[in-house]
Structure formats: C-alpha cells, structure tokens
Amino acid sequence: MRFPLLLTLQASWLTVCVATQHYPTTWGHYDLCKSHGYTDEGPTWYYMACQPEAADMTKYLKVFLDPPNITCGDPPETYCTLENPYMCNNECDAATEELAHPPELMFDFEGRNPTTFWQSSSWKKYPKPLAVNITLSWNKTIELTDDIVITFESGRPEQMVLEKSLDYGRSWQPYQFYATDCLDAFTMEPKTVRDITQHTLLDIICTEEYSRGYVWKNDKTVRFEIKDRFALFAGPKLHNMASLYGQLDTTKNLRDFFTITDLRIRLLRPATGATMVDENNLSRYFYAISDIKVHGRCKCNLHANSCIYDKEKLTCECEHNTTGPDCGRCKRNYQARAWSAGSYLPIPKGTANICVPNSVGPVTRVCDNELLRCQNGGVCVNNVRCQCPPAYTGLLCEKPRCENEPGGCGGSDSGQASLRPPGLILLSLLSVLGPVFLGEICWIL
Ligand SMILES: [Ca+2]
Question: What's the domain count of the chain?
C-alpha cells in the first residue's frame, strides 16, 4: 500500500525547492506533510495532517470463523429458500469449486451476477443456537473512515452483534447490536443512529433498522454508520471536517471510538421469516454473506503519510524521528522530550510534535531553527519564543500586527499580502473538501 501520493509529494517538493528562493533547501522530515500548489499569487504550500490515505482495508485482513468448520459443503448439503420451503435448489459442496462458499468470497470483487458468497451450514441442531463468529484481524491499528457494510445473500440475521477490539483480539467491546426485537434479544430499547447526538456519540445502541425479514428482500445490508457519526461534528454533508478534526485532536475517547485492530461479527440467530421455526425443514435457515466493506486508514499517530503492506503486514512509514508499527514512540537517541502524537491542525495552531535528538536537551514546544520555524523574519530565541519583526505578532510571528489595529490591514502601506507566508492562504478553503472521503489526498489544511 505505497501510495502514489507520496511520489507526487516528493516530486512537487523537488520542483518547489528550486522555485521558492526564500525557503531553504533542507526542511527535515516535516516537509512530507505539506504539498505544493499554486494560487493567483504564486506557489503555495498546503499543510496537511500527516496520515496515510484512506483505503479499502479488506485487502489486508485475515478472517477467522468460529466454529472453524461452520462453512457449508462438507458434507455437501442442499438448501431451501426461506420464502418457499419447496424451492430447494441451493447446493453447497466444498469439494466442487462452483458449488463451494468459502469465507474469502466475502471479500472478493463484487458486482458480478450471480454474486459470490460465504455460506454457513444450516440450522440442523435446532433449537441449539446457530451461532457463528466471523473475526477480521488486521494485526495493526486502523482508523475507520466510512460505514462498515455487510451484505447478506440470504435474509439478514434476526440477532447479531458487531464488536471491535483495540488490542489485537484480547478484549472486545460491542460496536452495535442488531435485532428484530431489541428488547427481547438484548433488553435494550431500540434506537437508530438518528437518535445519537454529539453528547451520546460513544453510546452503544441496539437497532432494528437492519433486521427485517425476507419480506424486505431487496434490503440486504447491515450497516455500522461511521459517516452519520462524523456528521454530528462535521455537518450533514461533512462540509466542516475541520470541526471534526478539532474534536479528534483533543478527545482521545472519540479517536479511540473509530479505531480498531479487529472486528468481530457475532451472528446469533439467522433469519426465520416467521415467529415459529419450521422444524421439519431446517435447511431453510442459515447465514450467507456476499460482501463486507471496511474503509479506513493505518493509524500512524499523525507521524506518517504512507503505510506499506509487506510480508502480509501493514506498517506505517514513520516520519518525525518516530518509530514502531503505529509511530508510537521516539527513535533511539531522539528522546529529548516525551513522545506525543502529531496534530490534525496545521502549524502554527498544531504541531508536528517531532521527536528531538537527545543532544538537544529538554525542549519546551515552540520553535526551533530547523522544523518549527518562526515566520516572516522572526528569530527563535532558546526554542522558547519567536522574536518577531515589528509588523508581525503571534506564536510564530504568523499574524500581521495590523489585523489588531483599527481599520485592519486594509491600508495601502501594510504590504501584508506579498509577505504573508505561502501556505496559510486558501488553507481554510481547502479544508472544506473533507479529504477523508476524497481518497487520493490526505486531509488538507
Ligand atoms: Ca462476494
């Protein structure tokens, strides 16, 4: 998963080093987290959160079923439809490729007709529950960026739980409960994602939205709504992603909510389409899933904008002198201050939180001569503050002083437009693009 974006960034970087004389030719690592563009006033930098591109994460998972022998076809079995007990032409035979329904068919390219799907053996042991756990493991922390969508080829289950793990499957928490009758199945009041507010976003609900029986045959999907939850902060059309990222930057619980290492789909009761189970024809009852969508990105703690898949493992390509699978610690000899995650917010509000060489000594956060530069001719004093020229103020001398004066900077002699650092112009405009869902670029600030 080495993304073309990285190459693009490096290419534009080379161009820009030549083109913009007032920037030195060495930027250290932080330059990988900004890209080059043009405005009417000339070249500019787009600063972005240092994170890999969102992608289809089903390419990188391992799937485990429990019980392991629950897949149909060994021995071969014939199934009837739920709607019509006399229509029994669904044959499953694990030894015949065209009639086999192995788990990998939940993740192959869909869009063909007929669809390909995994199928369980039937409910032969009724009334003992037909329970199946499907575990998806990435062996890497992933941040979800879009809805999880499970498409059932048969009726949707009458009871199901979607669970997540943040510690590689050692412990599990529910994400959402699904049932035809939430009170009966889980003693929970039925709710929908529309009942959730900013204050209750972390609440786990039971929903009846995705469990209607075969009379609603055309509706085959079960969903865990990520975008609707994002919309509570970013607005209905996710036009204000900056607001969401501001929340993510400061609220660990919220970040963790969308972060997983594993997902587990617990199928607890198949579709029956009726109150009574037909014990004379149990081959009508089974699970079949044609597709599972999981969209997300490697979690790299905002210290990498690329994630590679090598030897069946995802790894962040860490920048900022960080290391570890999630860039979760400073490299050896770069521990002059405690490790900290990067920021969704651009300099000067946010910071790359670069790990600092031991030789530098304790650092207090504000500026250095190489990476967190004072702007507009400001001079960094002892890494503690920027000494600004008279026309500028702000932590990194990023603000024209005239902005605070009566009449603002409208005067003809302010000269701010041409001196203003490239990269801070147009940034708020670009932030509305909501690049989590644009696919090709990291989010731009
Ligand atoms: Ca499929």
Answer: 2
Weakest mean pLDDT among 80-84, 318-322, 366-370, 374-378: 366-370
Residue 141 within a domain: yes
Examine the pLDDT at 55 and tell me if it is beyond 60: yes
- pLDDT at residue 160 is higher than 50: yes
pLDDT for position 22 = 27
Question: Is 100 contained in some domain?
Answer: yes
34 located within any domain: no
| pLDDT at residue 423 greater than cutoff 50 | no
The helices-and-strands tally (H runs, E runs) of the chain is 7, 24
By CB neighbour count within 10 A (0-12 exposed, 13-18 middle, 19+ buried), where does 136 fall? buried
Check residue 358 and give its pLDDT.
81
State the distance from the centre of ligand 1 to the C-alpha of 117, rounded, in angstroms: 5
User: Does 363 have pLDDT greater than 60?
Assistant: no
Give 83 Cα–ligand 1 centroid separation in angstroms.
Answer: 22
Tell me the three state secondary structure of residue 300.
coil
Same domain assignment for residues 269 and 120: yes
Whether residue 264 is found in the same domain as residue 384: no
Cα 197 to middle of ligand 1, angstroms? 34
Residues 6+ apart with CB under 8 A from 175: 162, 163, 164, 204, 224, 263
CA 28 to centroid of ligand 1, rounded, Å: 45
Q: Is the Cβ–Cβ distance between 213 and 273 less than 8 Å? A: yes
Same domain, 386 and 291: no
**107 CA from centroid of ligand 1 (Å):** 6
Q: Which domain holds residue 216?
A: 55-298
pLDDT band with cut points at 50, 70 and 90 for residue 45: low
| CA 443 to ligand 1 center in whole angstroms | 31
Q: Considering only residues 42 and 301, tell me which one the structure prediction assigns the higher pLDDT.
A: 301
Q: How far is the CA of 106 from the centre of ligand 1 (A)?
A: 5
Return d(Cα 278, Cα 102) in angstroms, integer. Answer: 27
CA–centroid distance, residue 292 to ligand 1 (Å): 8
Mean pLDDT of the chain: 80
**Neighbour tally for 89: CB within 10 Å:** 8
In a domain, 378, yes or no: yes
Which residues, chain by chain, have CB under 5 Å from ion ligand 1? 105, 108, 110, 116, 290
Q: What is the CATH number of the domain that holds 388?
A: 2.10.25.10
Q: For residue 155, what is the domain's CATH number? A: 2.60.120.260
